[in-house]
Write a structure and sequence with these properties.
- The chain starts with a helix and ends with a helix.
- The protein is elongated and about 50 Å long.
- With 112 residues, the protein is an all-alpha fold.
- It contains five helices and no strands.
- The longest helix has 32 residues.
- Helix 1 crosses helix 2, helix 2 runs antiparallel to helix 3 and helix 3 packs across helix 5.
Length: 112
């Protein structure tokens, strides 16, 4: 299990620059964030929202689900951090949850 957690940490934190899986996931997350920005812009236009409301709402649900899975996996894998700051299972994860990027992720998914 710790080997899987370590691999998840490597992929999500892109600790190895030559890792194609980490690069692919990073690109996919950037693309998903960009697509969400476009969806929010489209949703703000009444005519487009009326025509595509169901699709845009569905896309939002899927996106939030994916971002939630990413957050939970990051939280689970936080103890594998090389800095040692997050090594302790409970305290380390709580420390991770208080980092700026983790807080931004949490703020993004909690309202949903």
């Amino acid at each position: 299990m710790s080997q899987l957690r370590r691999r998840a940490h490597e992929i999500l934190d892109h600790t190895r620059p030559d890792d194609p899986t980490a690069s692919l996931l990073a690109a996919a997350l950037v693309a998903l964030i960009s697509a969400n920005v476009v969806a929010i812009i489209l949703k703000s236009e009444a005519g487009i929202d009326a025509a595509w409301h169901g699709w845009l709402d569905g896309f939002e649900v899927v996106s939030v689900a994916l971002f939630t899975v990413e957050y939970v996996v990051r939280l689970w894998a936080a103890v594998e951090s090389g800095s040692g700051r997050h090594r302790r299972p409970l305290l380390g994860r709580l420390r991770y949850m208080l980092t700026p990027l983790a807080l931004v992720d949490l703020i993004a998914i909690l309202p949903f």
